[in-house]
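Recall the central idea of this unit: under ordinary conditions, the amino acid sequence of a chain determines the structure it adopts. In this exercise we apply that idea directly, starting from the sequence alone.
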Amino acid sequence: MSDKTNRKYNKTKFEGVFYRLSPKRDPKTGQQDRVYAFWYADHEGKGHWKTVGRHSQGVRPQTARNARAEYLAEIAATGVSPREREKVTVGQAVEAYLAWGRNEGKYVDQHYRQYVAHVKAKIHTTPIVEVTPGLLSALKGELLKAPIKTAKPRKGDKANPAKLLAGSTVNNIFNFMRSSINRAIATGMWNGANPLSTKGGVWRMVKINNSRLRFFTRDEARALLADLEAVNPQLRDMSLLSLRTGLRCTEIFKLKGADVDANAGVLHVIAKGGHRKPVRVPEDMIAMLQAYDRKPGEPIFQAPITGKALTKTPAAFGFAVKRLGLAPEDGNTLYAVTFHTLRHTFASWLAQSGKVSLIELKDLMRHANINMTMRYAHLIPGQATEKLSIINDVLA
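Accordingly, the structure predicted from this sequence is:
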């Protein structure tokens, strides 16, 4: 019997279930063995054959029928066949996660922009099954050596020196891809392991020191606010709001007119993780935000040309920091000054006041755990200085 004849599929009494005769013989019966398979159409209507097994191995038409039913149910539930899932790319997972995150109000656009700017061209079309620790490590190395573009300085300002992509930004990109693949796994779009998982694997994220030692003195804060008032009054208000409340820049960017509750004296902010939380703020801050007279659905702080919500801190902040000489010249990140320094200053001043406990500070900062708050423990006044004087008394 020719190979062409061998490949002819014959119908069974079950829909979509077929068999073909194999040139091999069933060792038990001596007859030509039967190879059972089923036919199905993918989401584009293209037909495919799926082999189930041989009669000599115990496979029967009913076995193939059951296998086909399970296969079709999986396609109906996920929209992707197991065969197609093997070809799912990083980009497909990212785009699906982006759409889901936007619908759920998650803060995904900034990390998506970072992904597009730095790695999309390198990994977007790569099947997830081909993403290896070696590929990820090579990509991580490239990113850490990649210079980033900085905003053009205003007239009279010095140009920013060339900077490399921050380790935290690199981790943000990898975390975004990891979350995308985790979502693909949860929805059945991908049925393998997540290559970006750091649990028990050889892949590791960038090791960074997130702690910051730098916070503003009273005079520095006043000088910064005065400088911003002259060049960008809206940015000055954003900075003052962070300094007075400890709000993150991303939380400030998302504030809308409806989020200002003057009666309760709170702002309803979208915190990290996309959760909306009430934050109590001083009356004068409420009045400042109300003065913008925004409609309920309008962002309070807007881009000057488009009127849309801001997505990053205006470059004027960095230029003001340079003009005032607030940033370290050696580039030491422990003493770097960013918009987040305002939040750090808020916490540091509270700790120095001696009027709040670590638990109270944790609540005011909305930290997920006390470990984050412990970085301010050394600022809380205590008897440590008095205890150290004991040694001096002994030596006297």
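The domain at 90-186 is CATH 1.10.150 (DNA polymerase; domain 1).
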